[in-house]
Specification:
Shape: globular
Helix content: 25-40%
CATH topology: Spore Coat Polysaccharide Biosynthesis Protein SpsA, Chain A
CATH architecture: Alpha-Beta Complex
Number of helices: 7
Oligomer: single chain
Distance between the termini: 35 Å
Number of strands: 8
Largest sheet: 8 strands, mixed
CATH superfamily: Spore Coat Polysaccharide Biosynthesis Protein SpsA, Chain A
Amino acid sequence: MKHNEPFVSILLPICNTQRSLANCLKSLLGQSYKNIEIVAVDDNSKDKSFKILRDLKKKDRRLRISTNKKHYGLAVCLNRALKKAKGSFVCLMDQNDLATPDRIKRQVRYLLSHPKVVAVGTQLDKVRVPISHDEIVQSLLSGASFQFETALINKMLLPKDLLYFHENTYPFLFSEVFVKLVQYGQFANLPWILQHRPRPTKSQAQIIQNLPSFLKHLAKSIALYDYRPSLSSLFTPLLGEA
Protein backbone atom coordinates (compact mmCIF):
# COMPACT_ATOMS: atom_id res chain seq x y z
CA MET A 1 0.00 0.00 0.00
CA LYS A 2 1.39 3.37 -0.98
CA HIS A 3 1.00 6.04 1.69
CA ASN A 4 -0.07 8.68 -0.84
CA GLU A 5 -2.94 6.65 -2.26
CA PRO A 6 -6.29 8.41 -1.66
CA PHE A 7 -8.69 6.71 0.72
CA VAL A 8 -11.90 5.74 -1.10
CA SER A 9 -15.28 5.40 0.61
CA ILE A 10 -17.75 3.22 -1.29
CA LEU A 11 -21.36 4.08 -0.45
CA LEU A 12 -23.62 1.03 -0.60
CA PRO A 13 -27.32 1.48 0.29
CA ILE A 14 -29.03 -1.89 0.74
CA CYS A 15 -32.62 -3.12 0.90
CA ASN A 16 -33.89 -6.68 0.48
CA THR A 17 -31.20 -7.87 -1.88
CA GLN A 18 -30.00 -11.16 -0.40
CA ARG A 19 -29.79 -12.84 -3.81
CA SER A 20 -27.16 -10.49 -5.24
CA LEU A 21 -25.61 -8.82 -2.18
CA ALA A 22 -22.86 -11.33 -1.41
CA ASN A 23 -21.52 -11.22 -4.97
CA CYS A 24 -21.74 -7.43 -5.04
CA LEU A 25 -19.72 -7.15 -1.81
CA LYS A 26 -17.15 -9.71 -2.95
CA SER A 27 -16.61 -7.70 -6.13
CA LEU A 28 -15.86 -4.64 -3.98
CA LEU A 29 -13.74 -6.36 -1.35
CA GLY A 30 -11.79 -8.01 -4.16
CA GLN A 31 -10.76 -4.72 -5.77
CA SER A 32 -7.12 -4.45 -6.84
CA TYR A 33 -7.14 -1.01 -5.19
CA LYS A 34 -7.01 -1.85 -1.47
CA ASN A 35 -7.20 1.54 0.27
CA ILE A 36 -10.98 1.47 0.57
CA GLU A 37 -13.85 1.22 2.99
CA ILE A 38 -17.36 0.03 2.13
CA VAL A 39 -20.01 1.97 4.04
CA ALA A 40 -23.12 -0.18 3.81
CA VAL A 41 -26.43 1.08 5.19
CA ASP A 42 -29.25 -1.46 5.33
CA ASP A 43 -32.71 0.05 4.99
CA ASN A 44 -34.52 -2.28 7.41
CA SER A 45 -34.40 -5.28 5.07
CA LYS A 46 -36.89 -8.08 5.69
CA ASP A 47 -34.70 -10.77 4.16
CA LYS A 48 -31.18 -11.97 5.07
CA SER A 49 -29.35 -8.91 3.70
CA PHE A 50 -28.11 -7.63 7.05
CA LYS A 51 -26.98 -11.12 8.11
CA ILE A 52 -24.88 -11.28 4.94
CA LEU A 53 -23.34 -7.94 5.91
CA ARG A 54 -22.55 -9.15 9.44
CA ASP A 55 -20.97 -12.37 8.19
CA LEU A 56 -18.73 -10.62 5.66
CA LYS A 57 -17.75 -7.92 8.15
CA LYS A 58 -16.22 -10.62 10.37
CA LYS A 59 -13.88 -11.48 7.50
CA ASP A 60 -12.96 -7.96 6.34
CA ARG A 61 -12.76 -4.88 8.57
CA ARG A 62 -13.00 -2.57 5.58
CA LEU A 63 -16.73 -3.29 5.57
CA ARG A 64 -18.58 -0.87 7.86
CA ILE A 65 -22.25 -1.63 8.40
CA SER A 66 -25.36 -0.17 10.00
CA THR A 67 -29.09 -0.74 9.74
CA ASN A 68 -32.12 1.54 9.92
CA LYS A 69 -34.82 0.88 12.52
CA LYS A 70 -37.43 1.40 9.80
CA HIS A 71 -37.53 1.84 6.04
CA TYR A 72 -36.49 5.38 5.01
CA GLY A 73 -35.60 5.13 1.33
CA LEU A 74 -32.52 5.54 -0.82
CA ALA A 75 -31.77 9.21 -0.12
CA VAL A 76 -31.62 8.74 3.67
CA CYS A 77 -29.37 5.69 3.30
CA LEU A 78 -26.97 7.59 1.04
CA ASN A 79 -26.83 10.56 3.42
CA ARG A 80 -26.17 8.33 6.41
CA ALA A 81 -23.41 6.59 4.50
CA LEU A 82 -21.91 9.97 3.58
CA LYS A 83 -21.80 11.02 7.24
CA LYS A 84 -19.81 7.91 8.10
CA ALA A 85 -17.52 8.08 5.05
CA LYS A 86 -13.89 8.96 5.76
CA GLY A 87 -12.52 9.00 2.22
CA SER A 88 -11.38 11.99 0.18
CA PHE A 89 -12.83 10.14 -2.81
CA VAL A 90 -16.44 8.90 -2.67
CA CYS A 91 -17.63 6.00 -4.80
CA LEU A 92 -21.25 5.13 -5.60
CA MET A 93 -22.38 1.55 -6.07
CA ASP A 94 -25.70 -0.18 -6.72
CA GLN A 95 -26.49 -3.17 -4.51
CA ASN A 96 -27.27 -5.38 -7.52
CA ASP A 97 -24.18 -4.51 -9.55
CA LEU A 98 -20.82 -6.21 -9.87
CA ALA A 99 -17.63 -4.15 -10.13
CA THR A 100 -14.75 -5.45 -12.19
CA PRO A 101 -11.56 -5.99 -10.11
CA ASP A 102 -9.85 -2.86 -11.43
CA ARG A 103 -12.81 -0.45 -11.40
CA ILE A 104 -11.65 1.68 -8.44
CA LYS A 105 -7.98 1.54 -9.44
CA ARG A 106 -8.66 2.89 -12.93
CA GLN A 107 -10.98 5.61 -11.67
CA VAL A 108 -8.56 6.76 -8.95
CA ARG A 109 -5.73 6.93 -11.47
CA TYR A 110 -7.89 9.02 -13.78
CA LEU A 111 -8.88 11.53 -11.09
CA LEU A 112 -5.27 11.89 -9.93
CA SER A 113 -4.09 12.58 -13.47
CA HIS A 114 -7.01 14.94 -14.21
CA PRO A 115 -7.22 17.31 -11.23
CA LYS A 116 -10.05 19.37 -12.75
CA VAL A 117 -12.40 16.38 -13.00
CA VAL A 118 -14.85 16.20 -10.09
CA ALA A 119 -16.54 12.92 -11.08
CA VAL A 120 -15.63 10.04 -13.35
CA GLY A 121 -17.98 7.24 -14.38
CA THR A 122 -17.65 4.10 -16.47
CA GLN A 123 -19.44 2.22 -19.20
CA LEU A 124 -22.11 -0.17 -17.94
CA ASP A 125 -22.66 -3.37 -19.93
CA LYS A 126 -24.60 -2.56 -23.12
CA VAL A 127 -25.22 1.08 -22.17
CA ARG A 128 -22.67 3.26 -23.95
CA VAL A 129 -22.18 6.74 -22.55
CA PRO A 130 -20.06 9.62 -23.91
CA ILE A 131 -16.55 10.26 -22.63
CA SER A 132 -16.13 14.03 -22.91
CA HIS A 133 -17.39 16.61 -20.41
CA ASP A 134 -19.39 18.66 -22.91
CA GLU A 135 -21.33 15.64 -24.17
CA ILE A 136 -21.97 14.31 -20.67
CA VAL A 137 -23.37 17.58 -19.34
CA GLN A 138 -25.94 17.87 -22.14
CA SER A 139 -27.90 14.83 -20.96
CA LEU A 140 -26.76 14.73 -17.35
CA LEU A 141 -30.21 15.44 -15.95
CA SER A 142 -31.80 12.25 -17.26
CA GLY A 143 -28.82 10.03 -16.55
CA ALA A 144 -28.56 9.20 -20.24
CA SER A 145 -24.94 10.35 -20.45
CA PHE A 146 -23.63 9.37 -17.01
CA GLN A 147 -24.33 6.19 -15.06
CA PHE A 148 -24.52 7.73 -11.58
CA GLU A 149 -23.90 4.52 -9.66
CA THR A 150 -20.59 4.02 -11.44
CA ALA A 151 -19.28 7.40 -10.26
CA LEU A 152 -16.14 8.15 -8.30
CA ILE A 153 -16.26 11.68 -6.89
CA ASN A 154 -13.32 13.86 -5.83
CA LYS A 155 -14.72 15.32 -2.61
CA MET A 156 -11.65 17.54 -2.21
CA LEU A 157 -12.95 19.80 -5.00
CA LEU A 158 -16.29 20.37 -3.24
CA PRO A 159 -17.49 22.63 -0.42
CA LYS A 160 -18.23 20.84 2.81
CA ASP A 161 -21.67 19.20 2.95
CA LEU A 162 -22.44 19.86 -0.74
CA LEU A 163 -23.03 16.15 -1.22
CA TYR A 164 -26.55 15.65 0.09
CA PHE A 165 -29.39 13.62 -1.39
CA HIS A 166 -33.01 14.74 -1.20
CA GLU A 167 -36.06 12.53 -1.47
CA ASN A 168 -36.79 12.34 -5.18
CA THR A 169 -37.72 10.05 -8.03
CA TYR A 170 -34.95 7.75 -9.27
CA PRO A 171 -32.69 8.74 -10.99
CA PHE A 172 -33.33 12.40 -10.15
CA LEU A 173 -32.10 12.19 -6.56
CA PHE A 174 -28.72 11.54 -8.22
CA SER A 175 -28.96 14.05 -11.07
CA GLU A 176 -30.00 16.81 -8.66
CA VAL A 177 -26.67 16.38 -6.88
CA PHE A 178 -24.61 15.93 -10.03
CA VAL A 179 -25.97 19.11 -11.62
CA LYS A 180 -24.54 20.91 -8.58
CA LEU A 181 -21.17 19.24 -9.10
CA VAL A 182 -20.86 20.78 -12.57
CA GLN A 183 -20.21 24.09 -10.82
CA TYR A 184 -17.00 22.71 -9.27
CA GLY A 185 -15.35 20.61 -11.95
CA GLN A 186 -15.58 18.60 -15.11
CA PHE A 187 -17.12 15.18 -15.76
CA ALA A 188 -15.67 12.21 -17.59
CA ASN A 189 -16.54 8.61 -18.39
CA LEU A 190 -13.91 5.94 -18.84
CA PRO A 191 -14.20 3.99 -22.11
CA TRP A 192 -14.25 0.57 -20.42
CA ILE A 193 -17.09 -1.51 -18.99
CA LEU A 194 -16.08 -1.61 -15.33
CA GLN A 195 -19.44 -2.50 -13.83
CA HIS A 196 -22.13 -5.05 -14.64
CA ARG A 197 -25.86 -4.70 -14.03
CA PRO A 198 -27.89 -7.86 -14.71
CA ARG A 199 -31.21 -6.05 -14.97
CA PRO A 200 -33.44 -4.71 -17.77
CA THR A 201 -33.81 -1.01 -18.49
CA LYS A 202 -36.95 0.94 -17.65
CA SER A 203 -40.06 0.26 -19.69
CA GLN A 204 -41.64 2.96 -21.85
CA ALA A 205 -44.45 3.30 -19.29
CA GLN A 206 -41.95 3.93 -16.51
CA ILE A 207 -40.13 6.48 -18.64
CA ILE A 208 -43.38 8.39 -19.21
CA GLN A 209 -44.15 8.17 -15.50
CA ASN A 210 -40.84 9.91 -14.76
CA LEU A 211 -41.57 12.80 -17.13
CA PRO A 212 -43.22 15.19 -14.58
CA SER A 213 -40.27 14.78 -12.20
CA PHE A 214 -37.86 15.36 -15.08
CA LEU A 215 -39.57 18.62 -16.10
CA LYS A 216 -39.75 19.82 -12.50
CA HIS A 217 -36.09 19.08 -11.95
CA LEU A 218 -35.17 20.73 -15.26
CA ALA A 219 -36.89 23.97 -14.25
CA LYS A 220 -35.15 23.91 -10.87
CA SER A 221 -31.75 23.25 -12.42
CA ILE A 222 -32.12 26.13 -14.85
CA ALA A 223 -33.28 28.53 -12.14
CA LEU A 224 -30.76 27.62 -9.44
CA TYR A 225 -27.69 26.48 -11.36
CA ASP A 226 -28.13 28.01 -14.83
CA TYR A 227 -28.03 24.51 -16.28
CA ARG A 228 -28.64 24.78 -20.05
CA PRO A 229 -28.92 21.43 -21.84
CA SER A 230 -29.34 21.35 -25.59
CA LEU A 231 -32.85 21.04 -27.00
CA SER A 232 -32.06 17.65 -28.52
CA SER A 233 -30.95 16.24 -25.16
CA LEU A 234 -34.41 16.94 -23.72
CA PHE A 235 -35.80 14.27 -26.02
CA THR A 236 -33.28 11.67 -24.94
CA PRO A 237 -35.13 8.78 -23.27
CA LEU A 238 -35.06 8.94 -19.50
CA LEU A 239 -33.02 5.81 -18.91
CA GLY A 240 -33.39 5.82 -15.13
CA GLU A 241 -32.29 2.23 -14.62
CA ALA A 242 -33.42 0.96 -11.24
